[in-house]
Amino acid sequence: MALLLLCLRAMRQTALTSLFFLLAIALAGCATPAPLVRLDPKAADIIWVGGRASVQQEAAGIRVASAFEHQDGQTLGVRLEVENHTAARLEVDPRDITFTTCVDEAIASCAPTQRVIDPEQVLATLDVAQSRGAAEAANSQAFLGTMVLLSAVGDVAAVAGGHPRASTGLNTVVAANLMESDSAARDSAQSSIAVQRQIWSDRALRRNTLYPGQGTDGLVYLPINLRAGYVWLHANVAGTLFHFRFEQVVTQVAGIPTATRPHGQ
Fold this sequence. Notes:
By secondary structure, the protein is α+β, with helices and mostly antiparallel strands. Helices cover 38% and strands 31% of the residues.
């Protein structure tokens, strides 16, 4: 029982420390809104599809189209469509999609070319996180459940022995509340992982084999570089290279204005 009391006190102290820390951050100042970033295609022939400015190229019987889709946190999602008009089958692999960021139009201002984010690696990482989260949740709930049981047993013994105190039952309530809040937090984390996995599984461009007359499409994601003025997307499809140039537009978002008092107050 002494160990139980020490655990409960430590967990309450940790919760209070976290609360004070968050309160200090809130009092120190509000978070600055992240800038909005979009990519505008730079080409002579732009086609608008569903409100999206898209560009397309065709070579060696392969048609590739690209359009900026949306900003997702610290990444940019660009839609890529590939159609096979050849007489042979071909492979479309996101590992063959690269990008180059440039400060301006000069080649000397460009950073080294990088691969777009590999959806298979992201999915593997999410699977590991989901598995670990489930195991940690089970262990945490088992530990907190034991704390609730031991505390309840101690309360019953105190009442049965005729020595209840004003704090009798308090530890049981605290342990039960901790168990409930821990379960809610872990369920929320697992739900978030599930949503991310669905996005990367269903919306991202993944490896596909295209037979003659077939096509595929999906989103490729690249990390944001706020210093970039231009972004080049390079698609290598069956040995044929397609290059798409985008101008990066960064819009700063104003912070939430503080409330002002009426004049004279």
